[in-house]
Amino acid sequence: MLKCNFEDGNPVLLRHVCVDTLLIRDGQILLNKRGTFGGRKILEYGKWGLIGGFVERDENLEQAVSREVMEETAWSIDELFLFRINDNPNRPKEDRQNISFVYVAKAKEQIGKSDDEEVLSLQWFALDKLPKVEEIAFDHGENIELYKKWLREQFALPVMGKI
Q1: Which of 113, 91, 115, 116 is nearest to 102 (CA)?
Q2: How far apart are CA 47 and CA 39, in angstroms?
Q3: What is the Cα–Cα distance from 58 to 54, expressed in whole angstroms?
Q4: Are 97 and 91 in contact (CB under 8 A)?
Q5: CB 45, CB 34: distance < 8 Å
Q6: Opening angle at CA 51, ends 42 and 138, nearest 5
Q7: CB-count exposure of residue 151 (10 Å: 0-12, 13-18, 19+)
Q8: With 60 as the cut, is the pLDDT of residue 39 above it?
Q9: 140 with 163: CB under 8 angstroms?
Q10: Distance (Å, rounded) from C-alpha 131 to C-alpha 47?
Q11: What is the CATH number of the domain that holds 12?
Q12: Is 61 left (phi over 0), alpha (psi -120 to 50) or beta?
């Protein structure tokens, strides 16, 4: 939680804003195995997760998606669209209350190689051959399952709130 003081001087606890990306290429999704930050293991270390992170000051959501994808994977993206807004204050395995804007993007071109310490490894997975649920970080598996359902049913987007 972020602690901010506003005009009245009273501290207020606020939630974090982050972006997560279902990065797709040829019917496969790219997942990252979570690593370290500043030499310390990050939450859900060693589990597979979506590409993403916190929105930085002075950037919009699409800029945050492009930056996070490039930092973590070295892929440029195309055909970006908002898939889901997850504002559940009780998301599993979180140490803070994140509001996640979940995007889908097509992997366009890999430019170099990722050297982000937050990523132990990257792997493309067929949507029907994903890691086991207990090997996927946070609630990212729910987003992938919802995406697979959307591919079959093409329901209205973005999906709002808890599924």
Answers
A1: 91
A2: 17
A3: 12
A4: yes
A5: yes
A6: 55
A7: exposed
A8: yes
A9: no
A10: 9
A11: 3.90.79.10
A12: alpha
Count of the separate structural domains present in the chain: 1
Give the pLDDT confidence score for residue 162 in this predicted structure: 67
Mean confidence (pLDDT) of the chain:
90
Cut 0.85: pTM above it: yes
Report how far residue 83's alpha carbon sits from residue 123's, in angstroms, rounded to the nearest whole number. Answer: 22
Q: What is the 3-state secondary structure (H, E, C) of 44-78?
A: CCCCEECEEEECCCCCCHHHHHHHHHHHHHCEEEE
Q: How many angstroms separate the CA atoms of 74 and 91, rounded? A: 28
Cα 116 versus chain centre, distance: 15
Q: Are 72 and 20 in contact (CB under 8 A)?
A: no
- The 10s digit of each residue's pLDDT in 62-108 is 999 999 999 999 999 999 999 999 988 877 666 677 899 999 999 99
Helix (H, G, I), strand (E, B) or coil at 147: helix
Tell me if residue 40 falls in helix, strand or coil: strand
Tokens standing for residue 73? 């994977």
By residue range, what is the domain housing residue 36?
Answer: 2-160
In the numeric block, which tokens belong to residue 149? 């359902």
Closest by CA position to 18, among listed 137, 145, 122: 137
